[in-house]
Design brief:
The chain has 86 residues and is an alpha/beta fold. 41% of the residues lie in helices and 20% in strands. It has a four-stranded parallel sheet, sandwiched between helices. β1, α1 and β2 form a beta-alpha-beta unit.
């Protein structure tokens, strides 16, 4: 299945090759560089995710980051979110 990533937002890890490669692959698949959000791990991820969800209703990819159990439940209710890790 081919996806259109043009309107998708990507949240990935800041300061590591995993996050950088995620952004490169996202861009190569048609995602806009302006739609890449880099976040630090830990509590900052939860804050970044909630802030994005409050201001964006489209598809969100969260790659190479973990969210808290509370935020995972929030994302499950929101829908249109994909979590990918290795």
């Amino acid at each position: 299945m081919i996806k259109n990533f043009e309107k998708t937002k990507l949240i990935t890890h800041q300061g590591c090759l995993d996050g950088s490669v995620s952004a490169i692959l996202f861009h190569s698949a048609g995602g806009k560089i302006d739609n890449v959000i880099f976040s630090q791990a830990g509590k900052q991820v939860d804050k970044t995710v909630v802030e994005l969800c409050d201001n964006f209703d489209g598809e969100i990819l969260i790659v190479d980051l973990s969210v808290s159990e509370e935020i995972a439940k929030y994302l499950n209710l929101r829908g249109n979110v994909t979590l990918i890790d290795h």
